[in-house]
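Encode chain A's predicted structure.
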Amino acid sequence: MGKTIVSWSPIHGQGAITSNVAALAAYSALTSSKRALITHTQLNYSSLELLFGKQLVTREGFEDAGMAALERLIKSNLLKPNAVMDYTETIYADKLDLLGGSNLEDIIDDKTLKAILNITKDAYDHIWIDAHSGRNSELTRLILSKADLVIVNLPQNRFVLDRFFNGMDFPEELKGRNYIIVISQYDKKSSFTTRKIKRMYKTQAPIFQIPYSQQFKDACNTLNVTEWFYRLHKSTVKDSAASNFRDELENIVKYIHKTLADVDADVEEGEMNDTN
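Encoded structure for chain A:
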């Protein structure tokens, strides 16, 4: 059974949710043997597809890939786990696929999306989900409550950090769940370091950082994230801005893989206890 990693932020526009999950999923895919899927809960075509340079083509109101295609199979009771990959876009062959949204407005409802996300867990080892920010969406709350791991994306912003750590923007669905905090576009020269944040708010949650990278920003703006990460993975250059960016992603990915492995171990132990 696949594991879900949900990228979320309590606020709109400052958490870099989409670019962070795209970076982590891409790096994870290139450095592990896990078969992964990346998708989102926007329902319609979103910036996630653009980052990887993927375009949805609609022919006379018909889409043969992405959410819309899977919706038709769901409604016909024909969607099987081994068929999901046929309706995705390949990012890295046999490593990372993208399940895109739809160009057709209001074609997919929340119930259908839930069914799609549930069945993808039988088709992939890891499912990376770019979730709606905030807490107003019922679907977001459900996905947070069911996630195997949540990535909480926060900026180096005292006001936003205060609200999250003091509970005003902390969702009930995170209580008792595995989650990590990622400080987006991290500035190491800021007085608000990750160490200070952890000490100041007395949090036990792991805190990581993704530094601002001009090269990654350019890759996003030129819709060339797929190729850029492939080159970054192959690069042997050290002590550069790009290698520092890669090192921070590696720290996060290693932690995520270990946490998900521990989840698997707990499940297996529980199943063994149930049979005794």
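Residues 57-62 have pLDDT under 50 and may be disordered.
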